[in-house]
Each structure stands twice: as structure tokens, then as C-alpha cells.
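Aim 2 progress update. The chain analyzed this quarter is reproduced below.
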Amino acid sequence: MDDQGALAAQALRLVTAHFPDALGAVLGGSIAQGRATSSSDLDVAVLLPDSDISRREVIRHEGRLAELFLNTLADVPEFFAWDRARRRGTVLFIYDQGMPLMDPYGHVSRTCGQARAVLAGGPAPLTPAEREQSRYSLTCYLDDLVDTPPADRYEQLSLADFTLREATHLLTDYHGAWTGIGKWLPRRLLTADPLRGKALLDGHRAVADKADPASLAAAVEDVLDLFGGPLREGYAHTWHA
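Predicted C-alpha cells:
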């Protein structure tokens, strides 16, 4: 049994030990993709009877952290809609790309089909107001980044991080693509737009390695051009009661 198989067996033992009434379970994340490290946690989605409660839990099992996404069958459609609205599709991707651990009644197979149908439709697009707010925020981060002296490294690095995140937010929306956070941000960014995504990531690295924001600024301007360029004067945001 290879490492992936051993981790899948460990995840199955977790499910049977903690959720004896489980209707099915899937192992996702880096382990399912064959990218596990020695400290990778177990990302496990578990289907529960409708008498239970949908929730998210983090536990430790056999010395390894496990992040559990627990959903009753009745809650799955509503939860998938919520996951789509966040534009990250965390649990959707577990059911789409994960390894089934148990499926005695066929519920996992049907839920995976539901997840794939939602993913095929893409994430919820930003509203025009959300898009303009993101465009304005990215312009502000860009201006501050370019204006910050290299000697102010803490501020420069913080601005580079926020600039990359906001640019990713806009660029993935432009392509109707799913976004991500943490290690999933560069993965989803490169999937959405290999050329512009790499330019953003290389620019971010140049700030970290050389304290030089020029290439990141150029990459951001390229993204902003997709939306009509930087947004400064003329931006307005209305507060709703």
C-alpha cells in the first residue's frame, strides 16, 4: 500500500470510528491529488443522516489533524449553493476530485455528480458593484505599493500580498474561474490564466526577493486594463440600509 493508500485507510478508520452512521465519505485535498506532505491534514467530507447536523470540525486522529466537512443529505444542495457563492468551491472540489472512502448506498456517487454539475456552471460572478469595488481596491493597493520606499519592507510586503489577492480576485472573475486562498491561490490563479497569473506570481516574488515592485505593478496594470484601467476619481459606493 502506497502512502496515499495508507492515508486513505487512516481516513476511513476515522470515519468509521467517529461517525458510525455515516452514509458515505470522500477524502480530498492534497492527499487525494498525490501532493501530500508529512504534515498534510486529512480533508474529509462526510455525508450524514438528516437526523444529524451539518457542521465543520477539526480533530486529531491517530496523530494526524483532520478537517471534517459534515453535511446531511438534505443540506447538500443549499451548502453547494453557498460554496459556489464564495467562489472558492472548497467542498465542491472535494466531491469532484476526491477519493471515495465509503459509499454503501450510492449517496456519494450522486453527491459527486451534483458537485460536478455546480462546478461546470462556474462560480457566482461578481456583481457590477463588487467588481468596481475590487477594481478600486486594487488600484489603491497598486498606488501604495509603488509609492512605498523599499526600506519600508514590512509595509511593502504587506501591500504585495494584498495586491496579489485582489488581482487574483478580479482575474479569476474575469475568466469565470474558481479562486482560492492560501496554497490554492496560485494553483487556481495559474489554472484560470497561465500567462497573467504567472506574471502576478513572479512579480510578487520579485517584491519578496528584491524589494522591487515594478514587475508586479506591470502585471496588475495588465489585469486592470481588462476592466477599463485603474479606478480612482469617479468611484462611488452607496451604503444600503
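The longest helix spans residues 153-174. The mean pLDDT is 95. These observations will guide the mutagenesis experiments scheduled for the next reporting period.
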